[in-house]
What does this fold into?
Amino acid sequence: MLENIKGVIFDLDGSLADSMWVWSAVDDEYIKRYKLQMPEDFYEAIEGKSFTETAQYFLDMFPQLDMTLEELKQEWVMMAEEKYRLEVPLKEGVREFLRDMKEQRIPVGIATSNHRSLAEELLEANHIREYIDVIWTSCDVKAGKPAPDVYLRAAESLGISPESCLVFEDVPMGILAGKNAGMKVCAVEDGFSRHQEARKKELADYYIRNYNDIKNKTYEVL
It folds into this structure.
């Protein structure tokens, strides 16, 4: 999997950390707080969107939310930050994998749809900030996933060509973003996207249940 790879880029939620549950909890709380009626395709509609794009989706879908885009985003951050600081664990084996990348002098980046402050909170809380060379969010670029923008920005800042980068992603729109950037993509198993496993395997180059699969060479080549 790592042959000819000169840079590694992680999606954050569901890929580096077991954190997708946070947003289900925040969504449930937010829906109750403002008595919203969510459409059936809600999660499909927001998959891959940047934090800003998702907030704009809410404002467009629910005009009764009498607030600005920045106010909505800040409310979400406040609702999620304690969970990211205290309750979100890393994916199994990822800490050891990051150490291996450091030893092999392979630079590592983050390319996330999440808010930058929450990404920083999670990395600091889990004591892995030292292993991450760059962090980019989809709000830093023109379009969220499946557009390749955030992955291309991360690769550029690492000084690595896209074809020499390996991406770790947990959902189809994220996998597509990595592939659209011309990168190799490893799909990561996650409970939140288990129902999408077949589609993930269709799109990705590799599949892992956890990061120990890489060291043990038990990953799937697709």
Summary: The chain has a mean pLDDT of 96. The first helix runs from residue 20 to 34. DSSP finds ten helices and seven strands in the chain.
